[in-house]
Amino acid sequence: MGSLSTIEKLGILADAAKYDASCASSGTAKKNSLGGEGIGSTEGMGICHAYAPDGRCISLLKILLTNHCIFDCHYCINRKSSNVRRARFTPQEVADLTISFYKRNYIEGLFLSSGIIKSSNFTMEQMVEAARILREEYDFRGYIHLKTIPEADPELVHQAGLYADRVSINVELPTRKGLTRLAPDKDASQIEGAMGKVKSDIVEAKDAKKRFKHAPRFAPAGQSTQMIVGADTASDSDIVGRASKLYGGFRLRRVYYSAFSPIPDASAVLPLKRPPLIREHRLYQSDWLMRFYGYQAREVQQATGEDGNLPLDIDPKLAWALKFRSMFPLDVNRAPREQLLRVPGLGVTAVNRIIAARRHRTLRLDEVGKLTVSIAKVRPFICAADWRPTALTDRADLRKMLAPKQEQLELFAA
Q1: Which residues contact 167 (CB under 8 A, 6 or more apart)?
Q2: What's the rounded Cα separation, in Å, for the pair 152 and 131?
Q3: Which tens digit of pLDDT belongs to each residue from 207-251?
């Protein structure tokens, strides 16, 4: 490991960090400019993007401190029994890399995670030290996200929150049964205990800030977590229920969902195939329904099929509306905001525009169409001054009509 150059370490540890979805997007096609054609690449690891509350996109250096690990989680590429090339940064190297990239305007912050080396406390100390060097020695004012270790001493996790803008603790899997089976070195109660401590530290810091001007901040961007989808038998209903409890119990800013990706030399207890990426997308849509559209977890769960999973061909909002057609149609000129948010095809912005517009005039269907992206999806579920869906809402083939059309690709297309 000592013979590796900084660039070689960066290649290994940036690539190893790609499995953490807490600040990344998935599903893009792999492209590069090898061979002298084109500019840019989507294959390189190391830079991810987060979004500030005001909508700004923030580029982060996303790396592991080390991919060595004393744990043997079945789903993890960096588990101790995995045959992968290992590398390790020192805290000083992490700080120097961050500053070097920042000065070149490549990044605006750091996302730092790690495998467990020697012990949880030792690893957490190393991560905190990297953040301390950045804040105290380099006076770095950029964004820092630290992936904390629940098995570490609570005081070390607290120190991480004093330096980081956001901290996160992964619950890893949706169910305790799945965690026990696939990550025997981890304990669900210990993970939740650490998340609870971070929540209380955030609350105390906010309260202290109200009373004392110079009170230290603690993770002002809150905490988040991640669940792996498809590595165990947990259904979408299980995942949605778990996410709802995490939001309510720990005041999380985000729950991230990461579709399980098969790894080399995988354990026999893991699935041979990854779940479809559209399943991950549907879970994010259901997450949006709970966070911004006023849906309860039980309502999202009602949109699942007999197997407990959300349909892949239509979004969960449409799936719910089709199951509860008696709630529709809604009059766009009279229905309250919370009901209009249930209409498939109407987003938060469109609903706000409708409410603002109807204060001045009675809306017709064509006017509603101008306030939303597509009126075709909306028509069966609304009434307007000149429109009634009559039997359209109750048509047996309504789902087929509204589901996105599946396109057959041409085998010999240019």
Answers
A1: 145, 146, 147, 148, 157, 160, 161, 198, 219, 223
A2: 16
A3: 999 999 889 999 999 999 999 999 999 999 999 999 999 999 999
Phi and psi at residue 188, in whole multiples of 5°?
Answer: -60, -40
In DSSP terms, which residues pair with 59 in a beta bridge? 49
Q: HSE-up of 264 (CA within 13 Å, CB side)?
A: 7
Q: Tokens 């977890």, residue?
A: 297
Amino acid at 327: M
What is residue 393's DSSP assignment? G
Task: For the chain, list the domains and their CATH numbers.
Answer: 6-275 (3.20.20.70), 324-402 (no CATH)
In tens, the pLDDT along 380-403 reads 999 999 999 999 999 999 999 999
Are residues 195 and 157 in contact, defined by beta-carbon separation less than 8 angstroms?
no
| DSSP H or E segment with residue 288 | helix 277-292
* Residues 29, 353: Cα–Cα separation, whole Å: 35
For the record, the structure tokens of 97 come out as: 């890399």
| CA 140 to chain CA mean position, Å | 26
How far is the C-alpha of 35 from the C-alpha of 133, rounded, in Å? 40
Give the residue among 176, 156, 163, 295 at the shortest CA–CA distance from 221. 163
Contact (Cβ atoms closer than 8 angstroms) between residue 386 and residue 364:
yes
**Which has the closest alpha carbon to 260: 273, 246, 250, 278?**
273
DSSP 16-56: HGGG--TT----PPP---TTS-SS--SS--SEEEEE-TTS-
Q: Please check whether residue 338 is in contact with residue 294, taking contact to mean a CB–CB distance below 8 angstroms.
A: yes
Identity of the residue numbered 88? R
Calpha distance 370→353 (Å, rounded): 10
| CA nearest to 181, candidates 70, 275, 269, 258 | 269
Q: Using an 8 Å Cβ cutoff, are 226 and 21 in contact?
A: yes
Rounded to whole angstroms, the Cα distance separating 155 from 280 reads 34
Supply the pLDDT for residue 16: 86
Task: Report the alpha-carbon distance of residue 19 to residue 34 in Å, rounded.
Answer: 24
Which residue shows structure tokens 């070390």? Answer: 156
Q: Maximum distance among all alpha carbons in the chain?
A: 75
Query: Residue 168 is encoded by which pair of tokens?
Result: 């996160």
DSSP, res 134: I
